[in-house]
Design goal:
By secondary structure, this protein is mainly β. The protein has one domain (2-81). It has one helix spanning 78-81; strands spanning 2-13, 17-25, 34-39, 45-49, 53-55. The chain has a five-stranded antiparallel sheet with strand order 4-3-2-1-5, with no helix packed on it.
Amino acid sequence: MFTQLNPPMPVTVTDRGKGLAFAVIDYGPEHNLIWVTAIDATGEIWCAPNPKVRMQNNWTQGRMIPPSPEDPPFAVSAQSIR
């Protein structure tokens, strides 16, 4: 099944970059969804499998950029104690 997305969704495709997904292809229960995405930087159209696609951050929807794994969630520095 081919489904056109209206409106397109801003996504990030791993190893390709940010873009707009404008369609989804569903081959059935034994397959990943395929996101048809126009990449912003290059204009290329990529068909990316579901595990390679992530929604872009959106502050108003509560989707924030995940913290770096090296950053502790509640770091306390010597300056913040003074």
